[in-house]
User: What shape does this take?
Amino acid sequence: MTVFDAGTEFDRQVQTLVDLGYPALAGMTETAFRGVVEPLREPVRARAATMEPPAEGRVPFLLVVTRALVPLEESVPLTTLAGKSAPGVIERFYAPGELERFVSLEELALPDGEAYVAFDVDRGEEFCAVVPLDALAAVAERGRTPLTMEEGIAFLTQFPRALAKNKCFSLAGTRFGDRRVPALWISKGAPKLGWCWEGNPHTWLGMASAGDRAR
Assistant: This one.
């Protein structure tokens, strides 16, 4: 049986963000950036004994950096697919300045602050070909909540294999107030942050969700 070391995984995720240049994008020194995320070690440590190792499409926790620290326009291009180098892109159908108006749902009650931890994250591939509204209802029945844009980007940043052919995912925790549901999928060998209609199912698009969050 594989023993999962949450502390080592925490360090890996922090180092990944540092190596990608998150401190500079946040207008911070590396030391200051580490100071922002280091307090998140405690909620991770508190649950470490119950965590299982990452599996395909599901991980025990993610360090989530919000757009208040690093804008989406800067974090998306830092994502790649497993084994690929093409940077992530934002769908051109987002009108200029519109992306920032897609905001996290109030009912998620996200932790305050510029960074937090999302626990028990699942890309929700079982919901491929399911109408997004129906998938959301099923997620809610399980006591889970949909991922936000920032959480989806964190998922892909830390686990590039999370996004795979016919196993892409919606990020319904962030909405504009209309029928559009943000999603991450693959286009021309790179990740793409786009959106789909809440009533339209896609065989390749599931519904990503989290167990809960903490700071």
Notes: The chain has one domain: 6-214. The chain has a mean pLDDT of 96. Residues 6-214 form one domain. The first helix runs from residue 6 to 19.
